[in-house]
Amino acid sequence: MVTYAHILGFPRIGKDRELKKTVEAYWAGKIDKAALFAKAKELRAESWRLQKQAGLDFVTVGDFSFYDHILDMAAMLGVVPERFGALQADENVDIDTYFRMGRGRAPTGKDVPALEMTKWFDTNYHYIVPELNAEQNFKIASSKLFDEIEEAQQQGHNVKPVIVGPLTFLWLSKSRDEKVNKLSLLDNLITAYGQILNKLQALNIEWLQIDEPILSLELPQEWKDAFEATYTRLKQPKLKVLLATYFDTLGQNTRLVCQLPVDGIHVDLVNGANQLISVLDNLPNYKILSAGVVSGRNIWRADLSKTYETLSQIKDRIQDRLWISTSCSLLHCPVDLQQESKIPHDLKSWMAFSVQKLDEIVILAKAINQGPSSVQVCFEESDNAKLTRQQSKKIHRDAVKEKMAKVNAAMLSRKSTYQTRAKVQASALNLPLFPTTTIGSFPQTTDIRNLRKEKREGRLTEQAYTQAIQAEIKNAVKWQEEVDLDVLVHGEAERNDMVEYFGELLDGYAFTQNGWVQSYGSRCVKPPVIYGDVQRSKAMTIEWSKYAQSLTKKPMKGMLTGPVTMLCWSFVRDDQPRKDTAMQIALALRDEIVELEQNGIQIIQLDEPAFREGLPLKQSDWPMYLEWAVNVFKLATCGVKDSTQIHTHMCYSEFNDVIESIAALDADVITIETSRSQMELLEAFQAFKYPNEIGPGVYDIHSPRVPSQQEMTLLLEKAAKVIPAQRLWVNPDCGLKTRNWEETKEALIQMVNAAKTMREKLN
C-alpha cells in the first residue's frame, strides 16, 4: 500500500467566478434551470479534471454547491421550515426553494425571510444556519450528491464523497424554540444519515469523508458522549469512513476521535501542528491518518523540505497508513496562481493557490513513496523561495518597528469616560431620538465599477475620475438629505472593497487580479496579501470625507475598516505573530482617524465585523486574543477628542460570550446585525447592561427583499424593550454595496419612517 494524496475540497466558484455569474444570471431570469445546471456540470468536471491531472488518488465529490454546503445538507435532509412551503412525502427540495432558504428570493415562489447566516468557524466564509423544530422529520430530500457521484464515476474518476457529519450539522443548526434540546433530534437524524450511507454503499463507494469540524471545539460532555454511539450506528460493512477535523487541534477530544469506530481520521497539522505526537500516540494500529500539511486557508507556498521531515516522522510511526492532504478544504483559497500576471515575480514565487497546492500534495506523496530524490528539483525550488523571502528587503521597515516600540498605555484609552463623552457629543451633534444612519456603503453600480476600470486601464485621467466620483458622492448626499437621514455617509463610491481599498493605500500589501474566494452565496471577495511591515505613507479617506461634509450641514461619518478585520480578511504573512501585524495596521489607522478629526469629521466609524471571527476555536485560548484585539482597536481610535464620536460595526456574530470585550472597545456607538435573528442578539447587551449606544440592524441587506415600515417598527419596539430609547440608533444590518438603488431607496425610506414613528410614540 502506498501513501495516498487527496484533498478535503476544492473551490466551487471557477477560475473566473463562473458560478457567481451563472447563479446571478439565473436569479435575474437571464438563463433557465437547464443552463444553470449545465454550467454547474462544467465547473464540477473541471475541478475533477484538475485533481486527476495533478495526480491525486481520489477526486472529492460533494464539495460543489450552488450557495452553501450546510444549506446543501439541510436540503438533503429535508430540513425546510414551513414558511418556504411544506415538503410532500416523496418530494425533493427544488432549486428555487433552496435559493429562497439561502437568500429569501428565487425566480419562482414568494419572497420570505431567509434563514440566518453566520461565520463558518473562524473563517470569513458564511454558512446558512439550518432551522429545526421540536418535531423535526429528517429524510432524504435531495439527490444532488448521488447524481454528482454518478456523474464523476461516468467520467472515470475514483470518487471520495464528502458530507457534513450529523453532530456538526446539529451543532450548527438552531431552533427558535428554546425548549428544544438539539441532541434529542439525533436519533432520527442518524437514521437519515444511515439511509444516505446505504445509498453511497450501493454506488460502490469505498471511502466517504465525513466532516466533523466541531471536534476542534471544547465540547460539552453530552456532545462528546454522542459521537461514539452515532458512529457505531453509522458503521457500514463495505463503506470506509474518513472522519475529517480541521481549523485547530483536537485538544481534549484527541483520544475520543482516535478511538471512534471509523477507518481513518484527518487532522489539521497547519493550524494544529503541536497535536501530532498526541494523535500518533492515541491512533490505533489499523487506522489511516490523513495529515493536513498544506494550508487550505493561506496562499503561501509550503516549505516542502520541512513538511517532508514531518511526514517522514509520521511514516516511521504508522508506515502505510499515512495519507497526505490539505489542512482543510481549499474553499478558502483562490483557484490558480497562473492567472496572476501583475504580481511581482519574487512575491509570486512565495505563493501557491489551490491548483498549485494540488501539486504540492502530490510532490510530498511522491517524496514519501519514492524518496526525496524523485522530486529533488521541486524541493530545491521550494527551498530557494523560502530563502529569498526571508532575505527580502521588501518585508522589514525600520520606521514601523520604531513606531511600534513607542506604543504605551496612555495611547490605549480615551481622555474621558463614555458618560462624559456622551454629553459632549449630544451637545455637539444635536441628534434626535432614534437617530438614523447607514453602515457606510451605497450600491456599487455598473457605472461606478466602470469608472474604476477606466482609471485602472489609463483611459480616464485622475482629474476626470475625481470629478466623476464627486458627482456620485453629491448625488448620494443629496438623496440622504431628501429622505431625512440624520447622520450621512459619502457612500464609498471610490472603494472597491472595504479591505482591499485600504490595503492599496498602505505599504506592506500586495494584490491579485483573480484571487477570488467565496464569502457567501454568490458573493466573492479578493483578499489582499499582507507580505511585509504595514505603514501609512499618505492619507486614505480625508479628501473624500471633506468633500462630502462640505455638501451638508448634517454630520458626515468618516468610514474606515478596523485592524482586526484588515487582518482577518487578508492573506496574512506567517513569519511574525498576527497581533504584531494588527498593531502595525492600528497605528496606520490612528493617524488617519486623527487627521479626519482635524478636517472637521465629528463621527468616525471603524468597522470590525471580524472581531469575533478572530477568536480561537477553543475558549481557553480566548483571553490572549481578546486582549490584543481590544488593544489594537483602542490604539486606532483613542487619539481623538471627547467631542468626536467613534462608531464600530459588527455583523453576523454571537455576542454573548465576548460582550465584556466588546464593551472594553469603548466605542461610543456599536451597530450590529439583528434582523434575521429578530433582535435576539440584543439579549446579550441587555443581560450585560451594555453602557454605550447601540444600532441594531432593522433590515437584512443580504436579501433583496424590502421589509415594510411596520416590520421595522416592530423590530425597533422589540429593541426598545431591551435597550433604553435614548441609546438606540436605527440602521440597516450592514453596508448596502451589494444591493441596487431601487430596493435601497425603498428600504431606507421605510426605515426613516419607522424611526419617526418610534419618536412619535415615545413623545
UniProtKB/TrEMBL annotation:
Cobalamin-independent methionine synthase MetE N-terminal domain ranges (all copies): 5-317
Residues annotated for Zn(2+) 1 binding in this entry: 649, 651, 673, 734
EC number: 2.1.1.14
Sequence positions that bind 5-methyltetrahydropteroyltri-L-glutamate: 17-20, 119, 124, 523-524, 569, 613
Binding residues annotated for Zn(2+), in chain numbering: 649, 651, 673, 734
Entry's family note: Belongs to the vitamin-B12 independent methionine synthase family.
Name this polypeptide is given: 5-methyltetrahydropteroyltriglutamate--homocysteine methyltransferase
Organism annotation: Candidatus Berkiella cookevillensis
